[in-house]
């Protein structure tokens, strides 16, 4: 059985100067590129997700003019705009599968995404005999949390590299990691710094 790397939403709108910038987002992008340079060959597959919303709708109430930053958000990651692209510090050359999520609906988890061929992350992991995943990306308290929670629900061994995630808020990020550990996840360091 193999291990996969899940890279969650390392996109311009979630890194510094983005529409929904997470402090430390650029540093995560740089660190993920270093990790791929050092260890890409250790993974059976490498899946990266992108939040990819419709331009002409509120995406199921996900976008708001008066966002609460819990369930509603400013416009972000609109399909085909620069904000939806990977952060330029993140080099996705070693990524084997790209999934997009959130077309017309709120979607926090990488497991809600599909490749352009319609494959889900669960299908990809199963096809590659993966039983464990390392999780990195943005944001700790939302999409990293939801992706890790779904990975645990898939019966996978989950390790989160805490040096390669960043959150919207400190307290909720801490709480998210605590919940994941309670659910069986392991916290670790990528060791690339
Ligand atoms: Zn979104």
Task: Write a short abstract of this structure.
By secondary structure, the chain is of the alpha/beta class. It has helices spanning 25-39, 121-127, 140-153, 170-182, and strands at 2-8, 45-51, 97-101, 130-138, 157-166, 186-188.
DSSP strand (E) fraction? 15-25%
Q: How is the biggest beta sheet arranged?
A: 6 strands, parallel
**Overall average pLDDT:** 97
Secondary-structure element pattern, one letter each:
EHEEHEHEHE
How would you describe this protein?
This protein has helices at 25-39, 121-127, 140-153, 170-182, and strands at residues 2-8, 45-51, 97-101, 130-138, 157-166, 186-188. It has a single domain (2-188), classed as Rossmann fold (3-Layer(aba) Sandwich), CATH 3.40.50. It contains four helices and six strands. Helix 4 (170-182) links the parallel strand 5 and strand 6. 25% of the residues lie in helices and 21% in strands. It is α/β, with parallel strands linked by helices. A six-stranded parallel β-sheet has the order 3-2-1-4-5-6. The structure holds zinc ion.
């Amino acid at each position: 059985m193999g291990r996969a790397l899940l890279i969650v939403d390392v996109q311009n709108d979630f890194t510094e100067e983005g529409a929904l910038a997470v402090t430390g987002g650029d540093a995560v992008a740089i660190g993920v590129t270093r990790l791929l340079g050092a260890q890409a060959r250790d993974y059976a597959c490498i899946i990266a997700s992108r939040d990819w919303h419709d331009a002409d709708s509120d995406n199921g109430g996900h976008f708001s003019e008066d966002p609460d930053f819990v369930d509603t958000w400013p416009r972000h990651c609109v399909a085909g705009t620069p904000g939806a692209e990977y952060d330029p510090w993140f080099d996705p050359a070693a990524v084997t599968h790209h999934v997009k999520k959130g077309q017309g609906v709120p979607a926090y988890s990488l497991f809600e995404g599909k490749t352009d061929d319609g494959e889900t992350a669960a299908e990809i992991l199963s096809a590659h005999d993966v039983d464990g995943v390392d999780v990195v990306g943005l944001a700790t308290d939302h999409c990293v949390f939801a992706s890790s929670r779904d990975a645990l629900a898939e019966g996978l061994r989950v390790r989160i590299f805490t040096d390669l995630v960043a959150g919207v808020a400190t307290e909720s990020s801490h709480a998210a990691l605590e919940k994941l550990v309670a659910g069986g996840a392991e916290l670790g360091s990528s060791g690339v710094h």
